[in-house]
Design goal:
Helix content is 49%, strand content 7%. It has 19 helices and ten strands. Helix 14 packs across helix 15. It is elongated and about 170 Å long.
């Protein structure tokens, strides 16, 4: 009976331990841990027998093998004549004498079983705590490993940055204190280098390096600062030998023959060449001037843009490629002679162009720069009083340039405006000469009677195009003509004295004065 109660108590304690410390496998499957360590679980499995159960299972096995049973002995073990065990109802003496050994063995078995059960219960209670501690320790170990990895990465980055900075600083110091790279010579073919307005020696050195003139900008800069004549370098284009030692490149830049693409257009000059009737000499046109300024090199290596190439390019139909401004485009498109369509669009003045470009590129550069120059006078905003659009004002300015001295430009501009208002022909000899190959101040009756798109004797209004390159002063005179009522003027001597009047009879008397001075004599 006592053994039955003991086993029942053990089973009860086992069920309580299983209920209190049950392992939830589903919860473990859903558990999301950032470590890769599976914690050690120390609970005993439900199929593993308890120590007391193992002892009971082992007893029959020991009996089979002849091993003595532990605990109470069977009747056979006690011997044939052994008296039976007394019950609690027996006498005190008999009970103590006969049942002593059995009673003394039973409490020992109970105490041993209780201690085993306590140890199992203690292990069962401590198992979940040990599992939790194991998982926490695994997470901490993984975190420490991750931190150590990050620290190594950060340290490696700092080492790379430090080494890179040290190498960069070393290269800088080597360049600073060492001799800059330079060509040893001999020099190569000529290249064109541009010096912009306001360029410093450093900027010129960079341009030289980009064009392959010098091996390093530092070498050119050091050579330039040692030459005091560098301050005299003007903006423009220069032909410098490529692959030159820095000192030689500076010397070539300062040479008097190094500048190329420098063009001077005088006031009143026309695009094409003309021949003077009296002297027979050729008066170079703007195309001829451009061709001469485009030459690069000397001797057999000299290269130039030809006059005919410029004339052909200036006759092209792509006006945008030629730099024609929008305010002149339609009138230029309607010009009756394509070879004269750029007349007046290259202004008088000093210009720089890149001689290494094509003829079309050179003309585009000059026409665009001239348009900006014209517009700077307020050309696009003028015309309120004169009723002239920008291209008409340019035509009128070219007439003023060819007909008047600077001090008379405002008056001649007023004569033009006054005659246009009353639809009176301008009758300027300069418009007759424009269409002639051989020109002079005086004109013949035959020349004046010849009808051309430019002859203002044969038609009223302005010529089809400008007849020359006007100066900005002539353009300003047209934009703001001098107040007056003049309708006639004539130059009466070779010094340029000009008389103005609104009376035609007085104008005829002034013409007679001009004839007497010989200025109107024709050489034809």
């Amino acid at each position: 009976m006592t053994d039955r109660w003991t086993r029942a108590e053990e089973r009860f304690r086992q069920r309580e331990a299983d209920r209190r410390y049950r392992r939830n496998d589903q919860a473990w499957e859903d558990y999301d841990d950032d470590t890769n360590v599976i914690p050690r679980y120390t609970d005993e499995g439900p199929d593993e027998p308890l120590p007391a159960e193992r002892s009971r299972r082992a007893a029959p096995q020991r009996a089979e093998h002849g091993e003595p049973r532990r605990g109470r002995a069977s009747s056979a073990e006690r011997g044939e004549g052994a008296p039976p065990r007394r019950s609690r109802g027996d006498g005190l003496g008999g009970g103590r004498a006969g049942g002593g050994p059995a009673r003394s063995g039973r409490p020992r078995t109970q105490r041993g079983g209780s201690r085993g059960e306590e140890r199992r219960s203690e292990r069962q209670r401590s198992a979940p705590s040990r599992g939790r501690r194991s998982r926490a320790a695994s997470r901490k170990a993984a975190e420490r490993k991750k931190r150590r990895r990050y620290l190594w990465l950060i340290g490696a980055m700092f080492v790379v940055l430090f080494v890179g900075a040290a190498v960069f600083a070393g290269l800088k110091l080597a360049k600073m204190f060492g001799a800059p790279e330079d060509f040893a010579g001999p020099a190569g073919p000529l290249v064109v280098v541009q010096v912009h307005p306001g360029d410093t020696s450093n900027q010129i050195a960079d341009a030289m390096l980009q064009k392959g003139v010098v091996a390093s900008s530092q070498a050119f800069f050091q050579a330039a600062v040692r030459n005091t004549n560098m301050n005299a370098v003007q903006p423009g284009y220069y032909a410098i030998p490529s692959h030159s030692p820095a000192a030689q490149a500076v010397t070539a830049l300062l040479g008097k023959d190094s500048r190329v693409g420098n063009l001077v257009v005088s006031e009143g000059r026309q695009l094409h060449d003309q021949q003077d009737v009296n002297t027979g000499s050729r008066k170079d046109g703007i195309y001829r001037k451009i061709a001469d300024a485009s030459c690069v090199g000397t001797g057999p290596n000299k290269k130039c843009i030809a006059y005919d190439q410029l004339d052909a390019a200036g006759s092209g139909a792509d006006l945008a490629a030629l730099g024609v401004p929008s305010w002149a485009e339609q009138r230029v498109r309607d010009v009756p002679d394509r070879s004269r369509q750029l007349e007046g669009l290259i202004a008088a003045g000093t210009w720089d162009f890149d001689p290494s470009g094509t003829p079309q590129q050179i003309l585009q550069q000059l026409v665009s720069a001239s348009a900006r120059s014209y517009e700077s006078t307020g050309l696009l905003q003028s015309g309120g009083e004169t009723k002239l659009n920008p291209y008409q004002a340019l035509i009128a300015a070219s007439l003023v340039e060819r007909e008047a001295l600077p001090q008379d430009m405002g008056k001649v501009a007023r004569v033009i405006v006054n005659r246009l208002e009353v639809n009176q022909p301008l009758q300027f000899d300069s418009t007759v000469n424009y269409a002639l190959d051989r020109t002079e101040v005086a004109t013949t009756d035959t020349d004046r009677a010849k009808r051309t798109p430019w002859n203002t004797y044969a038609m009223p209004g302005l010529p089809a195009t400008p007849i020359s390159a006007p100066s900005l002063n002539a353009l300003r005179a047209v934009e703001n003509p001098e107040p007056g009522t003049w309708l006639y003027f004539v130059t009466i001597d070779k010094q340029g004295t000009t008389l103005f009047t609104e009376s035609y009879s007085e104008h005829l008397r002034n013409i007679e004065k001009a004839r007497q001075s010989g200025i109107l004599d024709s050489g034809r």
